[in-house]
Amino acid sequence: MEHLPELIGGSALLVAVLAVLAAVRAVRAARGREQFATESADRARRMKNEFVSMVSHELRTPLTSIAGFTDTLLESWKHLPADEVDEFLTIINKQAVHLSELVEDVLVIPRLEAGRLRLDMGVFDLADIAHDVTNAILPPGSARDAAVAIPGGVSVYADQRRVQQVLRNLVENAHKYGGDQILVEGSPYGEFYLVVVSDNGPGIPEEDVDRVFTHFEQLSKGDARSDKGIGLGLPIALRLARAMAGDLWYEHRFPTGSRFCFTIRTSPPDPVADGNEEGRVVRPDGTVEVAIR
Fold this sequence. Notes:
Elements lengths: L3 H73 L5 H33 L2 E3 L1 E5 H12 L7 E5 L5 E5 H18 L3 E9 L2 E8 L33 H11 L4 E5 L5 E8 L11 E6 L5 E5 L1
Parallel strand pairs: 3-5
Antiparallel strand pairs: 1-9, 2-4, 5-6, 6-8, 7-8, 9-10
């Protein structure tokens, strides 16, 4: 019993030491969380600023073109040759379409992430869409060869507008970064139809494949960055393909070049008894909610 006070005193000291250590660990953990939150906020702020800067640049380019040619027509259209007026109007129309596509690309990502993007699913002929998109981006007679090898009569089940958006982003990507030959082809792929947009350009290094599917990423940075694009095309195409129950991926083309492949369903996964589907809503986790009237 004579050593009891010493034991009690030693135990109290041990408890005190453990309490201090626990407090130190708690303070370090709190500081770590605070630092992580600060770094995350800074990273989000930098991404936001970069995004605003890139979007402003991309929107300014077609707006400047539209404003310039419009001013010229307002001032001089009576004195300009008819063919020159037609040329100016064609340029204005093309830039207006490009501006509309940029705005749609900017808006679709938050809609997907918020689960508020409606998909109007239906059956349509894929060949018509493929030809329209390819001819709009690479019209006959352009410097690069573009071909579509999808036969007529290929029916797919998807949102026609969003499939067109996926194709547009893939063909534009091949146009910007590929070689002088672009091919859009397709073939049956189980219960899906496989569409491949390929080019004979330099391809993508293996270590950079994942990056091209990340928002706001371009393989060229700084002054070497392409003067077109805000790094949204491929991420949007991937998310839209998956939202429509398909997928999208990259493959190397032999001997050189890129192959972007995506799949589209050829029929509804769960046919509705009355055939009356009102639309689909994509949730944040990527699942699709079907609303039936």
